[in-house]
């Protein structure tokens, strides 16, 4: 209907006929040059996509392309249709390029992240045995007595000062893990005691009091060693 209205208003002859008759039906089926138009004279000369482009894309109708409408075959200009398709392909190409430009910062960040991961080497030790990296040989730090695991070539590569640096990193990682685990244990115990008080559940209170708190005990041992050293 929008296309038909546009066809009447954009054609001076059809618009004059509509002003005289006041009927779109008579205007659309009015004989032209003594011959009756078997197709609808007001068949849309513009597609909904072309109308959208006119208002939002700044483009004008690209051709009189008709599909099947109301059971009747439409009229088309092949050359104009091909030109319209070509222009739309160029528009899609420009849109894809602009999208790549917008995504470029994200692509760069991902690339830098992957590159940094490749450049950073794995530590020569592990706090737990790792068969995948061959770190299964058990060792112990000289200062705090922390257990860690290395591969078979570790003793040949790390000696003296380099070994002391490695063991210092081992102890720092170990203490950090123990501190985090102790915080979790305390939080869990606090939550249980609070729930026992709210719900007056003696079982929750006993469960909280019976928690072993192994990580917190280990943290106390390490703290005493630090103070003693």
Automatic annotation (TrEMBL):
Give every DUF1977 domain span: 120-219
The primary location reported for this protein is membrane
User: How does this chain sit within the bilayer?
Assistant: Single-pass membrane protein
Q: Where is this region: Disordered?
A: 71-92
Q: Which GO terms describe its molecular function?
A: Hsp70 protein binding
**What compartments host this protein?**
Membrane
Which GO cellular component term is one of those annotated? endoplasmic reticulum membrane
State one Pfam family annotation.
DUF1977
Biological process terms in GO annotation: cellular response to misfolded protein
Q: What does the UniProt keyword field contain?
A: Chaperone, Membrane, Transmembrane, Transmembrane helix
Q: Which PANTHER family match?
A: AT29763P-RELATED (PTHR43908), DNAJ HOMOLOG SUBFAMILY B MEMBER 14 (PTHR43908:SF4)
* Name of the featured protein: DJB14 protein
Annotated source species: Hypocryptadius cinnamomeus
């Amino acid at each position: 209907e929008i296309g038909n209205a546009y066809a009447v208003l954009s054609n001076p002859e059809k618009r004059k006929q509509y002003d005289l008759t006041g009927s779109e039906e008579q205007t659309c089926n009015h004989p032209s040059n003594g011959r009756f138009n078997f197709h609808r004279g007001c068949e849309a000369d513009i597609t909904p996509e072309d109308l959208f482009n006119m208002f939002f894309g700044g483009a004008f109708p690209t051709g009189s392309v008709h599909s099947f409408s109301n059971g009747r075959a439409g009229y088309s200009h092949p050359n104009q249709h091909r030109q319209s398709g070509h222009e739309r392909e160029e528009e899609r190409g420009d849109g894809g390029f602009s999208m790549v430009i917008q995504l470029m910062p994200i692509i760069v960040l991902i690339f830098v992240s992957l590159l940094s991961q490749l450049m950073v080497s794995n530590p020569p030790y592990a706090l737990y045995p790792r068969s995948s990296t061959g770190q299964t040989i058990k060792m112990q730090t000289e200062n705090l007595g922390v257990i860690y695991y290395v591969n078979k070539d570790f003793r040949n590569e790390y000696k003296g000062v380099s070994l002391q640096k490695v063991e210092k990193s081992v102890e720092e990682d170990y203490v950090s893990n123990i501190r985090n685990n102790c915080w979790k244990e305390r939080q869990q115990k606090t939550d249980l005691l609070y729930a026992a008080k709210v719900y007056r559940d003696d079982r929750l209170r006993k469960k909280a009091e019976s928690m072993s708190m192994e990580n917190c005990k280990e943290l106390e041992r390490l703290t005493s060693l630090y103070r003693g050293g």
